[in-house]
Amino acid sequence: MRDFLVEITTKVPQGVSAEEVERRRAAETVRARELATAGRLFRLWRPVGDTRSVGIWRAEDEEQLRTDVLGTLPLWPWMTAVVTPLEPHPNDPGTPA
Fold first, then answer.
1. pLDDT per residue over 13-35, tens digit each?
2. Using an 8 Å Cβ cutoff, are 8 and 57 in contact?
3. What is the 8-class DSSP label of residue 36?
């Protein structure tokens, strides 16, 4: 499994009802929990004063990440994602010696 830094911006299209947005957001919460339990969503942050999300996600490769992980999010059709594959750094204090 590989780690990816993913920056997500969500833009709701014009004309979408508030009810549809709320329905998808509620479903998004459920799906994010499922992905966390499955080990696919590791951490998620929101920069202060911003609506973007920045997170560490896990998948075998970027194609699987976009299709089988991010692609299952109810808000995905309204999202753009910048995906950066990560590799261990030799000075990472979280890496066992």
1. 999 999 999 999 999 999 999 99
2. no
3. H
